[in-house]
Amino acid sequence: MKKLAKYYLGALMLCSLILSPLASATDDQAAINRLVQLSTIPTQASIDEVIALASEGSTNVMRQQFVFTALIRIGPSVSGDSYAKGILDTGTASAKNLQGALAYLSSHPESWMIPYVATYIQPSQAGIIRSMAAYLAGRLNLTDQKNNILTVMADTTIADDRIHAALGLSHLITGTEFNTVIDGSSMRSWDKKLIHRYHVFNWVSNDEKDKLVGTLYQRSETFLVLTAYEYLLTNNKIDLLKRLKIINEDNGNAAITYPPMQAIVRMLGYQISGTYDAAKITKSALM
């Protein structure tokens, strides 16, 4: 699951008035480039600019995708939540925008998001939307959606959509039942391996997770890295974070000094504070 990010308020008035295909492409590329920049600047001003760019109404699929990628990378926010709600409540946006809104919610699942699963997992929705709703269902532990997720997996022919649905299912069933579904599916062999690794990690005890996480967070699969970090942060694994050199000492204070690690922690909605000997993990206040 790739959660990169991009954005920019770069549509010059003269170019937008011309409305030529070349001008439109140039404007969209400028916006995408700006989104890349904004995704690394976790401020309210960045979020406001992302949403302003999204509101310009571009139909460029890449640009639409990068809007929510930017919001995901900046981290959970009141404004981001409100924008995603607006997209999902009206239901008239493009499939890519609806998928992006569900992906944004999946990055920080909360109970108020449950009604959106019931709406967007339905067969009347496009496959990319249904599969992301299936993933959100798993993140919210909605066991009553198991059969709907199985239907999504059976209906979709797109590999990434099937992965999203399978990841959602992995939160809801385990053991032989889960293995039978995944091994009997038409997913690619390397996708099955990813799903099985994710599933195993989710269902083992915390003691076993502590043993696995050291290798998991260094894997090349971005999604498994995010899973490892989320476990460490949500379970306040200060000592393990220090042992893995994720939390380091910086002039006596606890700090994450490697920028990519900083970005992941921010994206997951956490922050590190305090001295190195008394380090604390807390949820970031929503902007």
What do these coordinates show?
Helix 2 packs parallel to helix 4 (61-74) and helix 4 (61-74) runs parallel beside helix 6 (95-106). With 287 residues, the chain is mainly α. Among the domains are: 109-203; 206-287, no CATH class. Strand 1 and strand 2 (253-255) form a beta hairpin. The protein is built from 16 helices and four strands. The longest helix has 18 residues, at 21-38. 62% of the residues lie in helices and 5% in strands. The two termini are 25 Å apart. The strands form two sheets. A two-stranded antiparallel ribbon has the order 1-2.
How are the SSEs placed, and which strands pair?
Blueprint: H1 13-18, H2 21-38, H3 44-54, H4 61-74, H5 78-90, H6 95-106, H7 114-120, H8 127-139, H9 146-155, H10 159-169, H11 175-183, H12 189-203, H13 206-216, H14 222-234, H15 238-243, E1 248-250, E2 253-255, H16 259-267, E3 270-273, E4 280-283
